[in-house]
Structure formats: structure tokens, C-alpha cells
């Protein structure tokens, strides 16, 4: 039995296909004919591009985006010119020059604090490997033509591996390297393929044709196990499928408690493709569209038109259901290298989100124009992040008003009645939520930040992660305050932090009167099922008791025993 990192849930049982990655040896030599080296480089870029285009033809939406990102890397002027300059200045062969430049780029991305940017290093490695294989005339494995169902066993699964993977044939994958937030893990979860990563040297322990059974929830892998193990895994897999089928029956049903308290379950998304997944998983709306992803992984700000297309796409996919689009929430752990923002000692307490938008009116106005123009295609709700006081709402609304007037002057249509709300994720906002409620149409509680600011626990710091606890009585009391303030002013109150999809806390939140729960696509149907089996009146009494308790531990135990 091998133990790795549980990266993507689900059970896989089947025959192994071991992908042996070539160990590429890069020779470094002086060359005379520099033009020839540069031509070979151009040719390798061309061939790689054709290969990627071919993968793209068969790929799904999400994978297409990855392949587009790979083409962008291939076309990156800095990468191309750096390689050619190196050949020229050092009189070396293209393989050595390319390897040097790639290592530099990869190190730069890997050193970034931000997980998302770190992941871009995986894409550069992947494109780099392809270029080198093509330069060396080596064959690149093709995962789109698998004959039989297999469990893939690889050193690492690259973005182009996942992009060309036949979802019907790949039962799961296990790898030597990678962790929960590595690219391969993110892709596995989004493709709903079970995966265990970080098994160190599993490629040496398994041969193609061996029988593999593993559980992506526990991170446990068996190679050629006894029949009894295979049997129990197959039974569990069957049960898992039955649960999934059962949940799919709830796709069109309402999120309503046993005693008829109706809430709304929305989905958190980062791009228009996610909206399709949200819709397929029965989302009653989009509770949070994190627009910052539109601004990342590129070298310039997105244009008004580009943004308009993305917002319009989401509104159309959701067909009239509410779509909460959050204005740019950059800063903190989310960097935009091209904005050259100065390094700060406390980035989470610094120049970020609405603070940047109120300072850089040009950026904010472009986004608001795009949002308003898109508003005619569905049920748009605009949400400002990181609000800490009344003045910020008023300032943001003044800019919104300017944009309305500009569009009026230009005779550009926009919806007249869209709602404007705020995230409540800073304790000061929660404390004065009664005052803020008079200024907006809704609240959405951002527990990811609210917990870190309330308890002074950095959400990114592993060392103190045991202190990052949503059951903390201070956090729960603040949440209750916000819900009550919103209701007293007659506005709805949602939640789009991770807590909203946490099955341990959903009963308390229901009891506190939360109106909308927004979560990742995979959590929607289990949450709906849970709510359909709860009594609102009972949860209300439970929440009242919880709010009198003294410790997180006591609350967690009490809820587990009484729901
Ligand atoms: C939050 O803070 O809870 C939230 C939803 O926003 P983000 O995770 O993007 O900071
Ligand atoms: Mg936040």
C-alpha cells in the first residue's frame, strides 16, 4: 500500500498505464552556424504550435483555455528573443540556450507568493518540454487515442496531458510529484477524475498492466492487491456512482427545508466556463464571479470589450438567474505583475481591491462600463469587495453614477434596475453592518477574509492554520450580526466564503437565517440535499444555543451531535 496526497476525490480501479517521461539530456556546445540554430528554434516553435492546435481541436472548454495559454507562451516575445539573444551572444546550440531561458522563467514564476502564478510555471515547463522534445526529434506521448480504460501512472501530469486526456478512458491518475494545489490536482478535480499525487516514486513501483486500486479521498493506493481489496473498492465505487446519480435528481429542485424555508444555492466561479459547470450542477445563480482571473496570467489590463464579452457570456449561460459579479479584488495574495505594485509588508492589509479601484478610477470605470453594457443580457448584481466603511460605498457608487451618465450620453443601453451590494469580509464592516445596509441592496459574507481579519490569522500561513477556525464564536457572532442587520433593513444576505459550502456549518447558517449560500460547483447538490433534510425551526433553536457557547470546539461537537 502506498500513501500519497488525496488530490481529487473518487475511487479508481483498473489496469495501469505507466507514462515514462524521457529524461532529456541537454548537450551544451559551441556552434559556428548561429543562423542554423535560430532556424531550428523557429521550426520547433512551428511544430509545437501545430501539435498544440491539434490537441485543442479535441479538447473541452477548460482544456482549450490551457492550450491557448500554451500558444501564448510559444508566442511570448520575451521568451523568443531571450533564446535567440543567448544563441547569438554565447555562440551556443539552441537546446542549451532554450534550457537556460526556460529555467529562468520557471524560477521566476515559482518564486511568486501567489498559488495561481506559481501554477503558470507548470505551463512553461510543459511547453518547454515539448519544444525540447521536438528539437531532439523525440516522440511525445498521445493520450487522446487510448484503446482501453486505464489508470495513468506518471512522474507528473502536465497541463497538455490533461488537455488531451480522454475522460472516458482515464479512470484516474497517480503521480510521483504534486500536491493539493498543483496544476494536476486542480485539473483532476475540475474534470472529476480521481487522483492521488505526491507518491514519490510510484512510477518505479508500478509496471504497465499492473492492477491498481485507489481512493482519491484518502490518498491510499494499492498495486496488484488481493481480490478482496479489489472487490471492496469496486463496491465502494458502485455506491459512489449511485450517490451521484441520486444527487443528480436534485438538479432542478429547490433548496428548501423540511418546513418550507427556501434559500438559494449559488456557485462561485472564476471564468465563463465555470458558469456552464455551475449550471450543470443545479446552481440557482452565481453568488460570486471572481473577476480578477480575467486580469491575471497576461501582460496588460483586459480591455472593456474583452470584459464585456466575459460578463455577457456568464449572464447568458445563467439565463435570467441572478449573477453576482464582484469588481476587481486584486492585491493580497493575488498579484498583477504588470501593474508594478510595490511590495508591501502587510499585503492583506494594504493597497488592494476597492482601495485600488477608488484610486485607479480608470481601471474601475473600464470594468463598470463593461458590467453595465453586459447587464442587458441577464440578472446582474454588482458587488464591491473589501468594503470597510460607508465612505467607500459612496465613493464607488459615485463612480458608478458617472459611468451611467457616460453611457446615457453615448446612448448605450444598460439595465436600469440591477442591484449593487458589498462583501462583508472586514470586521469593521460587520460591526457597522446596520449602517452599511442602508446604502446597498445586498450583503455577501466573505468568510475567507472575515475569519483571518477577525482572529488575526493569516489565511495562507500553514503554521497557524489550526487557529483559522470558522467555528470561532467571534466569527459566528459577527455572521449573525450581519444577517440580522441586513434583514432589519430589508435586504438579502448571502455568503460566498468557503464556509457557505461546509456541511458542518450549513445547519447553523440556515438557522441564523442566511438567504443565499454560494459555493463551488461540486458542493451544490450535496448542500441542497442536506438543506432539504433539515428543519429551519430546529436549526434556528440550534443556532441560538451555539451563539451562547464559549469555544469553537464546544460548538463543533454540539452541532455534530445535534443535527
Ligand atoms: C472571501 O474572502 O471569503 C471571499 C469569498 O473572497 P476571496 O476568497 O476571493 O478573498
Ligand atoms: Mg475576500
TrEMBL record:
The active site is at residues 183, 496. Mg(2+) binds at residues 425, 449. Its cofactor is Mg(2+). Residues 3-120 form the Phosphotransferase system enzyme I N-terminal domain. It catalyses: L-histidyl-[protein] + phosphoenolpyruvate = N(pros)-phospho-L-histidyl-[protein] + pyruvate. Its EC number is 2.7.3.9. One of its GO terms (biological process) is phosphoenolpyruvate-dependent sugar phosphotransferase system. Residues 147-219 form the PEP-utilising enzyme mobile domain. Phosphoenolpyruvate binds at residues 290, 326, 448-449, 459. GO terms for cellular component: cytoplasm. Residues 245-534 form the PEP-utilising enzyme C-terminal domain. It is found in: Cytoplasm. Keywords: Coiled coil, Cytoplasm, Kinase, Magnesium, Metal-binding, Phosphotransferase system, Pyruvate, Sugar transport, Transferase, Transport. It comes from the Bacteria. Pfam families: PEP-utilisers_N, PEP-utilizers, PEP-utilizers_C. GO terms for molecular function: kinase activity; metal ion binding; phosphoenolpyruvate-protein phosphotransferase activity. It is an enzyme of class 2 (transferase). Residues 17-100 form a coiled coil. PANTHER family: PHOSPHOENOLPYRUVATE-PROTEIN PHOSPHOTRANSFERASE. NCBIfam families: PTS_I_fam (TIGR01417). Belongs to the PEP-utilizing enzyme family. General (non sugar-specific) component of the phosphoenolpyruvate-dependent sugar phosphotransferase system (sugar PTS). This major carbohydrate active-transport system catalyzes the phosphorylation of incoming sugar substrates concomitantly with their translocation across the cell membrane. Enzyme I transfers the phosphoryl group from phosphoenolpyruvate (PEP) to the phosphoryl carrier protein (HPr). This is Phosphoenolpyruvate-protein phosphotransferase. It comes from Geosporobacter ferrireducens.
Amino acid at each position: 500500500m502506498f500513501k500519497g496526497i488525496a488530490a481529487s476525490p473518487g475511487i479508481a480501479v483498473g489496469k495501469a498505464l505507466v507514462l515514462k517521461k524521457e529524461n532529456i539530456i541537454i548537450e551544451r556546445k559551441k556552434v559556428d552556424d548561429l543562423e542554423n540554430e535560430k532556424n531550428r528554434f523557429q521550426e520547433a516553435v512551428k511544430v509545437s504550435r501545430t501539435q498544440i492546435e491539434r490537441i485543442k481541436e479535441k479538447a473541452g472548454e477548460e482544456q482549450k483555455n490551457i492550450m491557448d495559454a500554451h500558444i501564448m507562451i510559444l508566442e511570448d516575445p520575451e521568451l523568443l528573443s531571450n533564446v535567440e539573444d543567448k544563441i547569438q551572444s554565447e555562440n551556443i546550440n539552441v537546446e542549451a540556450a532554450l534550457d537556460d531561458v526556460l529555467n529562468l522563467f520557471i524560477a521566476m514564476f515559482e518564486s511568486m507568493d501567489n498559488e495561481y502564478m506559481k501554477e503558470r510555471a507548470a505551463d512553461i515547463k510543459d511547453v518547454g518540454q515539448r519544444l525540447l522534445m521536438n528539437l531532439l526529434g523525440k516522440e511525445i506521448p498521445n493520450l487522446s487515442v487510448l484503446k482501453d480504460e486505464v489508470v495513468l501512472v506518471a512522474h507528473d501530469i502536465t497541463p497538455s496531458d490533461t488537455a488531451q486526456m480522454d475522460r472516458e478512458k482515464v479512470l484516474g491518475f497517480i503521480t510521483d510529484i504534486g500536491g493539493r494545489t498543483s496544476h494536476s490536482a486542480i485539473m483532476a478535480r475540475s474534470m472529476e477524475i480521481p487522483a492521488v499525487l505526491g507518491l514519490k516514486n510510484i512510477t518505479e513501483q508500478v509496471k504497465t498492466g499492473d492492477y491498481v486500486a485507489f481512493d482519491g479521498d484518502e490518498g491510499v493506493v494499492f498495486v496488484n492487491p488481493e481480490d478482496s481489496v479489489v472487490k471492496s473498492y469496486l463496491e465502494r465505487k458502485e455506491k459512489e456512482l449511485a450517490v451521484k446519480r441520486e444527487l443528480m435528481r436534485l438538479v432542478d429542485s429547490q433548496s428548501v427545508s423540511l418546513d418550507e424555508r427556501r434559500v438559494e444555492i449559488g456557485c462561485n466561479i472564476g471564468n465563463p466556463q465555470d458558469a456552464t459547470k455551475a449550471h450543470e450542477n443545479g446552481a440557482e445563480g452565481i453568488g460570486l464571479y471572481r473577476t480578477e482571473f480575467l486580469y491575471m496570467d497576461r501582460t496588460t489590463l483586459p480591455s472593456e470589450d474583452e470584459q464585456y464579452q466575459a460578463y455577457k457570456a456568464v449572464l447568458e449561460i445563467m439565463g435570467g438567474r441572478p449573477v453576482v459579479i464582484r469588481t476587481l479584488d486584486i492585491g493580497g495574495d493575488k498579484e498583477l505583475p504588470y501593474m508594478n505594485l510595490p511590495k508591501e509588508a502587510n499585503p492583506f492589509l494594504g493597497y488592494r481591491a476597492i482601495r485600488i479601484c477608488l484610486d485607479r478610477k480608470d481601471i474601475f470605470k473600464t470594468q463598470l462600463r463593461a458590467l453595465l453594457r453586459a447587464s442587458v443580457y441577464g440578472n446582474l448584481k454588482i458587488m464591491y469587495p473589501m468594503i470597510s466603511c460607508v465612505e467607500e460605498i459612496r465613493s464607488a457608487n459615485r463612480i458608478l453614477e458617472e459611468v451611467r451618465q457616460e453611457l446615457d450620453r453615448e446612448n448605450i443601453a444598460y439595465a436600469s434596475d440591477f442591484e449593487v451590494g458589498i462583501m462583508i469580509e472586514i470586521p469593521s464592516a460587520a460591526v457597522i453592518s446596520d449602517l452599511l445596509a442602508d446604502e446597498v441592496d445586498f450583503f455577501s459574507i466573505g468568510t475567507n477574509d472575515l475569519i483571518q481579519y477577525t482572529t488575526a490569522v493569516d489565511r495562507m500561513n500553514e503554521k497557524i492554520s489550526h487557529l483559522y477556525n470558522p467555528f470561532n464564536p467571534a466569527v459566528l457572532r459577527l455572521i449573525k450580526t450581519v444577517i440580522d442587520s441586513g434583514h432589519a433593513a430589508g435586504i438579502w444576505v448571502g455568503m460566498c466564503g468557503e464556509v457557505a459550502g461546509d456541511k458542518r456549518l450549513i445547519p447553523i447558517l440556515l438557522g441564523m437565517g442566511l438567504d443565499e449560500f454560494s459555493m463551488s460547483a461540486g458542493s451544490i447538490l450535496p448542500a441542497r440535499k442536506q438543506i432539504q433534510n433539515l428543519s429551519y425551526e430546529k436549526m434556528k433553536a440550534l443556532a441560538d444555543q451555539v451563539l451562547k457557547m464559549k469555544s469553537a470546539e464546544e460548538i463543533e461537537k454540539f452541532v455534530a451531535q445535534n443535527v
